[in-house]
Amino acid sequence: RALEMGLRQALVRDEFLLHYQPLVDARTHEILGFEALIRWAHPERGLVAPSEFISIAESCGLIGEIGRWTLRRACLDARSWPGQVKVAVNLSPVQFKDRQLVEAVRAVLEESGLAPERLELEITESVLLHDSEAVLSSLHRIKALGVQISMDDFGTGYSSLSYLRSFPFDKIKIDRSFVRDLPHDTNSVAIVRAVVGLSGTFGISVTAEGVETSEQARQLALEDCDQLQGYLFSRPIPAAGIPELIGRLA
Ligand code: G
Ligand code: G
Ligand code: MN
Ligand code: NA
Which residue's CA is the closest to the ligand 2 atom numbered 18? Predict the structure, then answer.
């Protein structure tokens, strides 16, 4: 309850901010994009992580407004990055209940002037559980705008492999739990290999999350992952640090 009040005030007082974590080419480690990750600059508690407030925002009806704020901020920030660098924004499954979602995406692209191809929207498997006809329709309309769709945290949910055939994903992000024990754990290697193989069949690109060591990065490149993300390259950082990071990782 107190948190809910705080979240309402946070919107009014403009206390949310975005940090960005790079997505790099698995072979060259060139920066290809950044994932936007929300934080709440709480007046007393300091920076609050999304794990502490997103689910509350979802249950109290504030996720729509917070989600629109995130999308707009991310698109405005990305405008000032080099022209090929993309921005990835997480969408809550609850945002798909909003009939205006697709129109909101279109309007933000128009306002920001960001090329639609530079925007990726990340959704989790749980979005596909409820009213999948309506979700599918929204996803197709978002794709028709030219925006890319990524399946986040792949392998942690109710993953049905048939989703890959039925839903219009451009990218799969392999959850970090399958990256953690690379390169030695043979089960993890087998899972990565299977996901890469199947994705290739459907023309879907693969990003591995939670890459922390150069051994993991090397193994994932060997397994033909397309992109890598993780602390090895950078923690999530404020937008102001992006030009320097692009210079350093180049
Ligand atoms: O930033 P952190 O590393 O703690 O992110 C934890 C999780 O919070 C991420 O996996 C992501 O799914 C979620 N998250 C981060 N930013 C947003 C956001 O803007 N909207 C939604 N819905 N989820 C987010
Ligand atoms: O959207 P998603 O839930 O995947 O958000 C990414 C989350 O993973 C963020 O909370 C981010 O801080 C975290 N993260 C990013 N890179 C790493 C990493 O290399 N190791 C670990 N343990 N967590 C990471
Ligand atoms: Mn994500
Ligand atoms: Na993820």
Answer: 210
